[in-house]
Amino acid sequence: MSKKEKVKTTKQIEGMFSIIRTLLAVTIALIFAFFLISTVSDNPIKDFSTLLIGPLANTGRMITVVSKMIPLLFTGVAVSLIYSAGQINIAAEGAFFAGAVASTVVAIIEGIPAPIHIILSLLAGAVTGAIVMGIPAIMNVRYNVVTIVSSLMMNYVALYGGLYIILNPLRDPSAGFEASFSFAKSAILPRILGNDRLHIGLLIGLAVVIFGSILLYKRPFGYSIRTVGANKRFAIYSGIPVDKTIVLTSLLSGAIAGMGGSVETLGNYSRFVYSGFTNHGWDGIMLAVLCRNNPKTIPFAAFFLAYLKTSADSLNLTSKIPPEIISVIQAIIIIFIAAEKLLSKWEHKKIVANSQKVMAVEKGD
Amino acid sequence: MEFNKKVYDDLNIGEDILSMENITKIYGNGFVANKNVNFTIRKGEIHGLVGENGAGKTTLMKVLFGQEIPEEGRILLAGREVNISNPLIALEYGIGMVHQHFMLIESLSVAENMVLGSEPVKGIAFDYDEAVHRTKEVSKKFDLDVNPKAIIRDLSVGYKQRVEILKMLLHGAQILLLDEPTAVLTPQETRELFIQLKQLREKGYSIVFISHKLNEVKEICDRITVLRGGESVSTTDTATVSEQDISKMMVGRDVFLNIEKKKSNPGKPVLSVSNLSYKNKFGLYAFKDLNFTIRSGEILGVAGVEGNGQSELANVLAGLEPIQDGDIKVNGRSIKGMNIRQIREEGVAVIHEDRMTYGTSATQSIAENVISDRYYKEEYKKNGFINWEYVVSKSKELIQNYLIKADGYDAEIRTLSGGNIQKVVAAREFTSKLKLLIASQPTRGIDVGAQELIRKKMIKLRDEENTATLLFSADLSELLNGSDGIIVMYGGKITAYFPDASLVNEEILGEYMLGLKSQSSEEIGGVVHE
Fold this sequence. Notes:
By secondary structure, chain A is mainly α. Chain A is built from 15 helices and two strands. Chain A has helices spanning 2-6, 10-40, 44-53, 59-84, 92-107, 114-143, 147-167, 201-218, 220-230, 232-238, 242-268, 280-290, 298-318, 324-338, 344-364; strands at 191-192, 195-199. The longest helix of chain A has 31 residues, at 10-40. Chain A starts with a helix and ends with a helix. Chain B is α/β, with parallel strands linked by helices. Chain A: It comes from Paratissierella segnis.
């Protein structure tokens, strides 16, 4: 019997390889980064170490990392949900932006007591985000419009519609630059941990992560989502209400992304200041891919990404290296992790060897 | 390529033309499909390759045709070791394969399909006349009649197969690999195929004939090689063994595929189909004005050549396609306008013919696959959450009762063999508190053990739960053996009804399936019960 216990299942080998693959992808990307830095830097060792451990240099930078992580929690979970349903709906970017705009509309109203004002602002963001991501889903279910195209276009509707509102009815002419009126004090998110850059959005974001993973893996609706995503025709055949699942998931995903926009705006600014896409939605797509649509691991990936972004900023301050390099590194990591066949020959050999072992054990019995 | 097919001409009839030595093939999911298999083919022989489904026959042929690369072993052609890394190289070596699912482009003509891969050109344009000419030539040379200008989708299955064989011959195949060529044919078409194969043998061609129909293997093959569990058990002259011997070698024990069953004791109609018609997306009737009933405790078999409306009927009954015209009643209630969940709640269970697309979800676990129709029910919930503990215990129970071989309840479906995947489907559908079972090709392409289990379970449902079953099967022996009554579908209509399946045979069914005969409307009307 003891012989048998040593034999692994194919699933275990595959699990092991997915970890090795991620580590290898990150390693290759860092090596690549090192070479890139060497070509542009006078002191590549110093700059590379800034890239690696720069954010650890002081607490201020660590707080920057955490604060950059907050919006990513929302968009990462939002995209994970909708991708779990197999929908290539890429309107999280637009939903995030629209959410920020909608909560601005509510936040500039004076005279609403604090907790209610915050809740109303966040709700406005969530509802607007839901609409942005929900429309492509409804168009797909009803009229068979290809989601990837309609959702891409929704991003521009959200962006320019939002900018119109900010720059016309909501524009504060006294601001001196293109921005909305100031938020009412009662709408600004409370600080936590006694730090004026950490706000309650962190807790809301973590709650969203927990909500997302419980929903997907513990609730019947989450089972519907995952089954629709894994094999839509199987879901139809089994009697799962597929269209309803797709629309509800899109609304939910949009609500989370929209609330992310609200939290980011009300947590960090005193008025609406964006003049274009914030990229949080696109980052959410990347995180969902890295985490294979599992919300549970989003905080780690979000932290990793926020860390990289902070490194980029500090590298930018301390060296001549442009922050674009970080974007290159990010792209390379994604490419490698998305490459499912990386190491596949080795993996296949391992599985083959294991199967032969299993055969030998079975013969021995 | 340095290889010259002339070496084949130098061989005498009966000499080894090809040998495969110690072939081992392990798939990416860890499944060992071939273990040290040895296999030789002589010039001018028909060599039967038999074994249960899942024994590794198709894999071995895919290795030979360059579609799978073996982990170990070598292939010798006329004594020379060769490396066949893809089908084009296989063709250059004169090895051609006719797959179970034809590799023909439905919208193109016979001639265009024939020259695919080596298209004749005139200037920069495709030379259609030359393609027609070549097709006629090869058709004449081998005495296999085809119309070069016919469009593939208008042809019968047997005809398409002939095109496939000719295509391989046109590309210079000397060794033909036929993967279960008779599985899709009626008895009459099979006879015709055999005549053609014998002619090819006379001309010195070598043919590998994969089948699990032992009477056919006995009839046409010179030698047979038996595979079992991925290993080659033996190669013998067909004349020296009986069908019983072969089946024993295949399974390793005596098998009784003919399931013993009592006479049915039908009750009231569970399914009543009235004036049901269905038009496909091209506006053509897939079936028209169907009227039949199935009573509780009764298994009604549906015979018919593929494409005569059976798939569409099964899909409409399952709710996958809407009821366009006519009505379907289950236990007296019309299911018109119901969604699939509601239909299933009326007690309808479905084994879909396509188990990988509809029957299961490949990247989800066994546990997740067996709850897809019931996860939302109170029984599977606790405080609004899925009660995974309960789901797991239920799954383990099903894995045990249905003898599903897997790493565990959390094993993903894609890591299972075909037979075990079908057992997962059966485990779910047969435990869905069903009153009516729509079973499409429930045992197609799975091993004998799984076939036996599924057939037994269907009869158990009939006897113990009074389930009404509609059984679609391309395997006539399964239909004859497993059904109480049989209807034949031809051209979207019911053309025959046999109230007692034990009084018909494959020959009779074949005549109705090919549309050579049809019963009177009174006889057919007998399938409607009050």
